[in-house]
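Hello Y.,

Per our agreement to keep a running log of every chain we model this quarter, I'm adding this entry. I've kept the format consistent with earlier entries: sequence first, then predicted structure.
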Amino acid sequence: MHFLHSRFKKLAKASWQLVLFLVVCSNFAIFELNAQNKVSDEDRRNARLQATYIAKLVSFISWDENSTQATTPFRIIVLGDEKVGFAKSLKFLIEQGNIKSEGRDVEVFSFPNAESKKALKLIKKGVNFIYFTKDSYLNVEDILPVRGGAMFIAEGRDFVAKNQGCIAFESIRNRLKLVVNETCFRRKFAKVNPVLTSLKSVVEVVKPE
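Predicted structure for the entry above:
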């Protein structure tokens, strides 16, 4: 009887330890899921802000182009498998706001990595903005040979400061700002509206290293 009682106590103790372990694992999984959701929410918020800034940029920038180019649509290309709704938000803003670029219609194209070849074909025909998402297979070096007069846009200060990017988004203390390549805006294909450079709270013009 004593043996059975002792064995029962051991089984009960082991069962409680198992239950406790499962509870801890469950709580940890919930914590991880909440953390992921929080990051995703922040990413989606930043994506909407980025889309808003780019929509404004389309209106702010004056382009030096010939008469043929002036009649073609202003094209924005989004490269990579973005899942935060950036391209969707940008298309919505352009369509709902009826945004034009010096009278030209604005078109937004989104190419996942599986359609990189299609993206390159369209870029060769002529585009204005090329946005590289974080997971884009294509990079600046891939696009340079067919770039034309397109501006490169991505996330991260180094994209402008150390790379060949024109515009970068930088998030600091839950605040999003534009980092602009000074050299890029001095090139003959684009002139920036003074209104943009005066917005010092959200725009920083830097010289690449």
